[in-house]
Amino acid sequence: xxxxxxxxxxxxxxxxxxxxxxxxxxxxxxxxxxxxxxxxxxxxxxxxxxxxxxxxxxxxxxxxxxxxxxxxxxxxxxxxxxxxxxxxxxxxxxxxxxxxxxxxxxxxxxxxxxxxxxxxxxxxxxxxxxxxxxxxxxxxxxxxxxxxxxxxxxxxxxxxxxxxxxxxxxxxxxxxxxxxxxxxxxxxxxxxxxxxxxxxxxxxxxxxxxxxxxxxxxxxxxxxxxxxxxxxxxxxxxxxxxxxxxxxxxxxxxxxxxxxxxxxxxxxxxxxxxxxxxxxxxxxxxxxxxxxxxxxxxxxxxxxxxxxxxxxxxxxxxxxxxxxxxxxxxxxxxxxxxxxxxxxxxxxxxxxxxxxxxxxxxxxxxxxxxxxxxxxxxxxxxxxxxxxxxxxxxxxxxxxxxxxxxxxxxxxxxxxxxxxxxxxxxxxxxxxxxxxxxxxxxxxxxxxxxxxxxxxxxxxxxxxxxxxxxxxxxxxxxxxxxxxxxxxxx
Length: 490
Ligand code: GLN
Known about the structure:
- The protein has helices spanning 9-17, 23-35, 48-63, 105-112, 160-167, 184-190, 224-234, 278-293, 309-324, 342-353, 356-369, 374-395, 421-426, 432-437, 466-480, and strands at residues 43-46, 74-78, 116-121, 173-178, 193-196, 216-221, 264-268, 297-301, 401-405, 441-448, 454-461.
- The radius of gyration is 21 Å and the shape is globular.
- Strand 7 (264-268), helix 8 and strand 8 form a beta-alpha-beta unit.
- The longest helix has 22 residues, at 374-395.
- Helix content is 37%, strand content 13%.
- The protein contains 15 helices and eleven strands.
- It has a single domain (1-490), classed as Amidase signature (AS) domain (Amidase signature (AS) enzymes, Alpha-Beta Complex).
- By secondary structure, it is of the alpha/beta class.
- The protein binds glutamine.
- Residues 127-130, 158, 178-182, 210, 317, 428 line the site of glutamine (GLN).
């Protein structure tokens, strides 16, 4: 891997501040790494000219002493974020050729703080998936392989491009989004750190909508501190998103490395599911021991409605998606397939533009919202959602954060679950509850399985309490001392 691409974001920012190297230099190293990584299919659009222009402008700012907190740092952007003048397709054929005339708030915040854009990262179509295989532009490949094996593994999804790019050192950090686990599960599958902030922390404006009451943007990077640095820039109130939180953004980095002594960590018994690999159970125990050693108190808690979370999620998310995706009619964005009349044009455009999984979600969503089924499914799911949030509120009476595995498996092979939607949905079992309750969650790499694949632990916090997660995450990071890196084969 080329010279400067292996640095952490923090080390790169220090190097830039000390003028050890320029943004142009670190950006050129990244452009070369990205160009040489087509086997991973992590980037769907590369923007080297734009990156160099941004890097040179950053170097000019540095020389006059007015650099921002991310000045000169090359980042990758999940293709769900609209970027002005740069094709943004959300992994879908129906948005092919769509060049937004505006910039999402989150990416605007990153550019305001001086970051450099390397390109757009592949993802599951409209962020629906857990393996990146629903992308219209082909699956992303995980840079990790089993020891001695050469099977192609999934980087997880839907932010698989972000995860793969961060793990393979194709950017210093990346944006991602999480509706049901799409930041945390790919982070776990690739040995990276992923943070899903409290709902409303980051503006949704300019992010292609999947399920608006669940969607939340967050960072992925190689260390806990790097995600804290990124989140500070990404977050903030935005009048253009009515659900954006109007609160000062804390200095998340200041929580990293802070003592966690005396914090009470809840272990939810319902997360001990049947069929979970013993290694994941063992890693969970290890995580408990690490936090105990760091001075935390461990308490058993119960989240009794956990078993209804996946069914509720797979009603609410498709319901919202069916409504959000109604706008893709061939008139305003991307693809248009002409028919004999307007209705036929709509039908043909949607039939050809959407992939199988997206169509499945639209059908499920339309069904659960239709007269006669609305009360039985959608309304019921909303009630379950309330109960799930109540379970967490109850848990916060006796603990300050929760520790669980991030996913019930390590990265699986491409193709392994793609014919079985239910098996795929089951991979989200530990992550969807957090979105239903709007809480912050984080995945931290904590070890490898017997085959040498990374595994993650998940921390769940109270509303708006990302700070505690950054402290706990860095405690786990320190104890785990996770240094394994994928062997370069691409
Ligand atoms: N895997 C989940 C789904 O397919 C979550 C996706 C996400 O968080 N965007 O809906």
